[in-house]
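As a warm-up, study this chain.
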Amino acid sequence: MEKLERNTGLVLEGGGMRGVFTSGVLDAFMKHQLEFPYVVAVSAGACNGMSYISRQPRRARYSNIDLLQKYGYISLKNLIVKGSIFDPSLLYERFPNDILPFDYDAYAQNPAVFEMVCTNCQTGYAEYLTEKTDRRRMMAIVKASSSLPYAAQITDVDGKPMLDGGIVDSIPVQRAIDTGHGFNVVVMTRNKGYRSTESDHKIPRFIYSDYPRLRVALSHRVEVYNRQLEMVERMEAWGEVVVIRPQRPMEVGRVCRDTAKLERLYEEGFHEGEQFCKKYQW
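Now compare it with the structure written out below.
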């Protein structure tokens, strides 16, 4: 087995429902008691990271698959009625406090540093936020980090308007490096070699009219993401990161509601996580 450096960081990409792959990876980590001193996560990665830091195996899987099947919390009706395609009151209030209790105490007692990436709508820059004790602020941060542009409402955090961190930093490897973690494990939710074929375009003024810098960030989103993908693959080739990613062709979209596909992707993530744990140890 290969030894991990004690200061190795863990980076969790987002990707909406593709994040069930990350759920599987992290469940394998918990099974093998693989814990990292520093975790930085964005969007769906932040949601999954919460259950990893609170040491609650299969909680994220249950939320993403079983409860999706039961409650159907992804719908256009939610977008029209509640301002988000993902039911926010169900996900960030009823789930953690009632239906699928989140272990706030275990989360607070975990010594690992856990940062969640949000996009500040006023500045157009990423902010890396952490919270261990204030439950309301904690949920506001993870909600903001996961608030997809156009498909969710802006979330207030510390008096600042925030949206999905993936707008400007989808794969926060550089943040991990900047905080002193020279070697990192990166959990991706796209196959190797993937590049977005979408086109960047100028965002009309009537969209996010109060936030011109957010519009600028959104207009360069694809370019920034593809550069990050290239950077990660380059660092992987140089041995500066280890990447865990899906190996099978991706069949899950950002707002996928097909639980059979989600289950297959979760199982693949768990398998890849187990393979990693068989190869690496502290």
